[in-house]
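Box 3.1 A note on notation
Throughout this textbook, protein chains are presented in two layers. The first layer is the amino acid sequence; the second is a token string describing backbone geometry. Keep the layers aligned when reading.
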Amino acid sequence: MLGKLAGWDDTIVALATPPGIGAIGVIRISGPESFRVVGRLFPSKDLEQQASHTLHVGFLKEGEETLDEVVVSLFKGPRSYTGEDVVEVSCHGSPYVQERVIQALLRQGARLARAGEFTQRAFLKGKMDLTQAEAVADLIASNTAASARTALHTIRGGFSKALRELREQLLSFSALIELELDFSQEDVEFADRSQFYKLVTSAEGTVDQLLQSFRLGNVIRNGVSVAIVGKPNAGKSTLLNTLLNENRAIVSEIAGTTRDTIEETLNIDGILFRLIDTAGIRMHTTDVIESIGVGRSLEKMQQADIVVYMFDVEDGVDEVMGRKQELVLADGGKRYVWVGNKVDAMSEDAARRKFSGIPDAVFISAKEGRQVDVLKQRLVDQVLQGNTQTEGTIVTNARHYHALQQVGASLAGIHKGLDDRLPGDLLALDIRHCLHYLGEITGEITSEDRLDYIFSKFCIGK
């Protein structure tokens, strides 16, 4: 199937910069006719005779009509993004001008590119594997330092390198085992089983580490939702305003002021937190609107990755401890951060002594902003869970995660086969399964439909 795809021989064009008014717009052309297609509109020079990786200033003209003054950048394949001849035309950022240039290029024989087609061609030309191609889309969509670092690490081949080394070692052993099958009558072993056992054990550890990283990777890619809950008038809206450094939520002394959930995003140390300010949880309210708000609060609390439960340090100890016990019993797997608010009315030391039964509580004054930085760090710690850095190989893609699960299961099968001293033909079968799932991740084994689905999620000009 890939052979059929790799036979593409047409020339494509698309706007590579975001649509709309700007200083410049970049129009990308890729394919065997790129230089000729643009050259017919660029009378200043014969582009086909110019060196690769050069810039040329001149007017684009269609017949006698001048389209725009542009800068033309030339990249001859295979030393280009797609591996083909690529031309990038930098024109003025008027949507009208950009459209005129694109239409002129279409009339010269190019066609409009599909979503992600430039990167798809780069993959088919061997400029990158599928994990690197998908990381391009992740980098474009990144909105925090952590997500950008993770995508760049994958684009540079960090994830691919680990998989490639494992695949090459498995292929080597598979070849030796297959050779044994050719000499089955001779009762010989070409593959060192003890060495293979060490390889499989090491590979299982590597795959398990990658699988474990998906929890962090999912947070880095999609952000983490944090529900701020507690009794009415505990200071939830004040805390939201303090974290955002703006008056996003209405604050008053009247209990039940917040009737519905308010959601905002906050970047802390490169991690995106989706903060959800909820209506105060008061179970016996007679206000119908407030009752609806309480129901939504409980729903958001169930959906959140982390729950910040706020209580007033002047509340009774039994009341707070009882509520804590109820929440833990209801969902012991939920990650909670217990926050005692209003230490401006009671000293932090006194609050700690009073609520000694919650030793991991953070005591703050949301109104005065005291100890809010400590709360931010606690949120980051809840996400990282001991991972002190986010620049290594971290799995952020659900497709990769599910394929790695299959790789892990195949390795476990090989491991058991070695323990049970299975014959070479059965070991070879398990190895082929493992190689298949590794190939699905990097794109060495794929289908046209799967590629079309993956690249359809890219923007048009990439």
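The chain has a mean pLDDT of 81. The CA atoms of residues 250 and 305 lie 25 Å apart.
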